[in-house]
Design a protein that fits this description.
The chain has one domain: Cytidine Deaminase, domain 2 (3-Layer(aba) Sandwich), CATH 3.40.140. About 35% of the residues lie in helices and about 25% in strands. Strands 2-1-3-4-5 form a 5-stranded mixed beta sheet, sandwiched between helices. Strand 3, helix 4 and strand 4 form a beta-alpha-beta unit. The longest helix is centred in the middle third of the chain and has 17 residues. It is an alpha+beta fold.
């Protein structure tokens, strides 16, 4: 979905609504961030409506998941101190929105830092130059 396809009342809906999630991510994530790589935290109100997007730029073409994890941990910890409890995360990167092993590693890292900070991670999306796709949770993991 592109942002042009968002329903008129998208701002009154939770961004986790499947009819708006990809369009909201497309609206917020810039073309430059998609070209360079970045992580967006979409902080949410308790009703999961968008509160504030936060851009965490990657170093040029950063592939280090641990470095991204540390920046996200700092940001979500501060958000939690301010009373935020709900978040959606977008991975902005070049290429296609098809999930890569790095995307799955990032999702696992995001789940961990959100758990540590006391936030609920509602969704992870990939924002590529031409499309946005939701990254499903990996259900095959036996780790608890």
């Amino acid at each position: 979905m592109r942002f042009e396809d968002l329903p008129r009342d998208w701002a009154q809906r939770p961004i986790t609504d499947p009819d708006v999630l990809e369009g909201v991510v497309d609206l917020i994530v810039t073309g430059q961030a998609r070209d360079d790589g970045a992580t967006y935290l979409l902080l949410c109100h308790p009703n999961r409506r968008l509160l504030q997007p936060v851009l965490l730029p990657d170093q040029p073409r950063c592939v280090d998941v641990a470095a991204v994890r540390e920046r996200v941990l700092l940001a979500v910890s501060e958000a939690a101190r301010q009373g935020v409890r709900d978040v959606v995360i977008a991975i902005a990167r070049p290429g296609r929105p098809t999930a890569t092993p790095r995307d799955h590693d990032l999702r696992t890292a995001f789940e961990g830092v959100c758990r540590v900070a006391g936030l609920t991670l509602h969704a992870v999306a990939i924002a590529a130059p031409d499309a946005v796709a939701v990254l499903p949770a990996q259900r095959d993991s036996a780790a608890a």
